Amino acid sequence: MSKPSCRLRRQELNEKKLARRRAAEKLRQRQAAQGLKNPPTSTISNGTSEWRTIGEEKQARQEAVEGQLKVYRSILPTLLRRLEKIRDPRNPKTVKHKSTVLMLYGMLMFVFQMASRREANRQMTMPMFQENLRLMFPELERLPHQDTLNRFLSSVEVEQIEETLVELIQHFIRNKKFCRYLASKRYPVAMDGTQKLVRDYCWAEQCLERQIQFKEEDGTGTTKPQYYVYVMEASLAFPNGVTIPLMSEFLDYTEGDQEKNKQDCELKAFTRLAARIKDLFPKLPIMVLLDGLYPNGPVMQQCHRYHWDYMIVLQDGSLPSVWEEVHGLGKLQRQNHLQQNWGNRRQHFQWVNDIEYRYGNNDRKRQTVHVVICEERWEEIGPDTAEIVQKSSRHAWISCEPLNRENVHERCNLMARHRWGIENSFLVEKHHGYQYEHCFSYNWNAMRGYHFLMRLAHLINALAQKTERLARLIRLMGIRGLNRLLRETCSGPWLDAERISTLLASSCQLRLE
Fold first, then answer.
1. Does residue 36 form part of some domain?
2. Which of 5, 276, 313, 332 is 20 to 30 A from 40, alpha carbon to alpha carbon?
3. Does residue 222 share a domain with residue 120?
4. Is 192 helix (H, G, I), strand (E, B) or coil?
5. Do 249 and 326 sit in the same domain of this protein?
6. Which is higher by pLDDT, 477 or 311?
7. Rounded average pLDDT over 86-99
8. What's the confidence (pLDDT) of residue 1?
């Protein structure tokens, strides 16, 4: 005899959905009466295809590729000129493919989001794919094997590939492409570290090492070494959600203190990366956005020395002396508070200015910092019921500039909170097609070269996805759906060669939303 079903009956499920829908509608009406606004959602369409004929589909695919290609062609001249400057270490007598062709091919591998070198060899060398690539990029006379690119990256100075990415961003900044995205006329640079890959064996001397716990067959616990690659990343994280890859700093075991048996760490990598950013952008007004690892004297001192603004997450257990001043001076600075509605949230800001933070040997060094605390409350429908649930959160930041009622919203909501942009960028690069955690090569130099080509491809795709022409398609099918559409279009006989040739002959400009 079979067991009775544990599921609710269909009628009960429908009633539950209806009750949640009605509760959500009442909540929206109540929030609207209170002056609260729900943030817009970015859910893609759940309908069937809007293309009813093959002609409509072909036209849509053609327009999507043309929109993407306009961005490529507006960037490619500057990109190729810079790539040509990279010295080719190969023997000229045995060279079959130009260095620019190799690096362009490597970048396109990530633009079309190939999962590995083998997949790129299989997919991108198919006759139809090759024909479409040569149609869009006449520089690609013929596609090389991925092993050729791997050998090239193993011997070339791959740092110059990253310099190409930086020069592109400098070009955009000079042309004021990002001016409309700024807050306080500063460029928000989010910096954070993330793990790239991990192995059980040491495949390069630069790999970091850690001990992990595991159980033997007899149940006893022991440790074994694990080797991993860790990268400190910097990205431009604009208030409208646009995140642009900027620079990368690989943590290197050889950069540690060998005598004291200390490895390279994220704070040391921050120091090196910040110095490189200052060298390449000496006069750029920058606001650094950092997480709870970085509120310490040396980091703040370096930012002051570079004349950088900053907003750093302050956790409850960090800087006890600063928290003592916050609790003490907060009772005296009672006027330093602000209540406001932001989206569907009620926010209460409280800040304390001019806190003297001492650090170093015998507390000889000092920094003047400012702390702001944001407490917010909002309502939403419970996950399993139709009841309205009260939610709350608390955030605290260390600010370089004094806080007041005029700037606290901009510094906290429009800048500091968008540090999540780099976390979202990690998510995209790891799980949305860029294969951040894939090695691509066990040669350390080549592995870094593939990484820089991936970041360059992410930059180009991110800019293309913010153009007016592709915005509608993204709302319709999402970013990953658009990328899939472009890849499938280049794999089949969809493109009109005459229209592509006409587009290549015309001048292309980058026009962002």
1. no
2. 313
3. no
4. strand
5. yes
6. 311
7. 90
8. 47
Token pair for 408: 């606290």
At residue 414 the predicted structure's pLDDT band, cuts being 50, 70 and 90, is very high
Give the domain extent around 345. 183-431
Same domain, 386 and 486: no
d(Cα 121, Cα 161) in Å, to the nearest integer? 22
Task: Write phi, then psi, for 253 (nearest 5 degrees).
Answer: -55, -35
Asked whether residue 14 is assigned to any structural domain, the reply reads no
Mean pLDDT for the chain overall: 89
The pTM (predicted TM-score) of the whole model is 0.92
SS3 assignment for 94-114: HCCCCHHHHHHHHHHHHHCCC
Asked if residue 42 has pLDDT above 80, the reply is no
* 280 pLDDT above the threshold of 50: yes
Which of 397, 431, 465 represents a domain boundary (last residue)?
A: 431
Specify the DSSP element, H or E, that contains 444. helix 444-464
Find tokens 């955690």 and name the residue: 437
Does pLDDT of 15 surpass 90?
A: no
Name the residue type at position 211.
Q
Please provide the size of the chain in residues: 513
**One domain, residues 377 and 483:** no
Region 373-387: what's the mean pLDDT? 86
Beta strands in 343-423 (DSSP E): 345-359, 365-381, 388-399
449 is a domain residue: yes
Does any domain span residue 19? no
CB 11 within 8 Å of CB 372: no
Q: Which CATH number covers residue 353?
A: 3.90.350
Same domain, 354 and 268: yes
Give CA–CA dist 25/152, Å, rounded: 60
The whole-number pLDDT of residue 14 equals 80
Give mean pLDDT, residues 186-208: 94
Q: How many H-runs (helices) and E-runs (strands) does the chain carry?
A: 15, 10
Q: Are residues 277 and 381 in the same domain?
A: yes
Alpha carbons 307 and 282: distance in angstroms, whole number: 10
How wide is the angle at C-alpha 131 spanned by C-alphas 128 and 137, nearest 5°? Answer: 135
The CA distance from 78 to 69, in Å, is 15
Alpha helices in 144-223 (DSSP H): 146-155, 159-174
Same domain, yes or no, for 138 and 260?
no
Domain count, the chain: 2
Give the residue from 431, 462, 480 where a domain finishes. Answer: 431
**421 in the same domain as 448:** no
